[in-house]
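Regression check, flavin mononucleotide case 221:
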Amino acid sequence: MSRGKGEIGRGEDEHDDGGGGRGDDGVKTNDSSSPSLSLSLSLSLSLSLSLSLSLSLSLPSLPTPPKKPSERKMGQAMGQDCALLEEVSAWVAAKTKLPFWAKLTPNITSVADAGRAALRGGARGLAAINTINSISGVDLETLRPQPCVEGATTPGGYSGPAVKPIALAKVAALAGMIKSEKGGKFDLSGIGGVETGADAAEFLLLGADNVQVCVIVFFSS
Ligand SMILES: Cc1cc2nc3c(=O)[nH]c(=O)nc-3n(C[C@H](O)[C@H](O)[C@H](O)COP(=O)(O)O)c2cc1C
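Current build output:
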């Protein structure tokens, strides 16, 4: 059977260990011949080149559980709670006429479920992935897990080339959901380990409308 650009047959959702995620059918076909490149500026709410907002619902380093009663969940913890993700997206949708993309965490059973929630809340598109929870090692002299700053350790966020295969799978799952359930009407930004044009092409072929780069900028500058 011949396939259109970006179609890889039945693209499966990320492995679901009972969290209720649905298998995602197919991968979104990309008809755009001139994908735009949107640069992530490491801001939680940043203005991208396409005059849309990026709403980060996925920062791993924010406090969980909340420190104040007024804070329910923040950053990644918010992005792991589909009801809250939908609620926060709806707040933003009510406050701005600019389209916004919800930036999702990969640290969740079904990224497609998170994407559905953000779109229900009013997001015009989705962006994935943010960083992956990680402990970069254990210092065998101090016996402290890394990263460790002034004696304090917290899990860090893994990014760069090593996360690309995971990012590609999450993007494929989101593209399949957007195509099969939403008629392809929402934008998808692929993020994670993009270093070269070939990397970007892989994301586009799996259904992303554009790509973003982050950590390679640090190494290249
Ligand atoms: C030093 C650093 C700071 C980051 N800050 C943010 C941030 O403020 N908001 C956000 O949504 N993502 C942030 N990220 C995540 C990146 O935007 C991106 O999603 C992730 O690093 C994967 O892409 P990459 O492999 O191209 O780095 C940060 C990543 C790094 C490495």
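Comparison notes: Confidence is low (pLDDT under 50) at residues 1-45. Helices lie at 75-79, 82-95, 111-121, 164-182, 197-205, 215-220. No diff flagged against the previous build.
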